[in-house]
């Protein structure tokens, strides 16, 4: 199965500022990572 490594911490930024979220995942393709906040999905600027 997939392996996911996330170092959790609280991240706070003001509207318009940039936050960097990192996650390492290994497993059989296709893998997908989704980030969410209190109000819903965070749209990625870059798909890796």
From TrEMBL:
This is Ig-like domain-containing protein. Coiled coil: none annotated. InterPro entries: Ig-like_dom (IPR007110), Ig-like_dom_sf (IPR036179), Ig-like_fold (IPR013783). Residues 2-48 form the Ig-like domain. SUPFAM superfamilies: Immunoglobulin.
């Amino acid at each position: 199965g997939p392996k996911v490594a996330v170092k959790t911490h609280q991240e706070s930024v003001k509207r318009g500022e940039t936050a960097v979220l990192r996650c390492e995942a290994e497993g059989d393709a296709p893998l997908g990572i989704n980030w969410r906040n209190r109000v819903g999905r965070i749209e990625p600027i870059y798909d890796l």
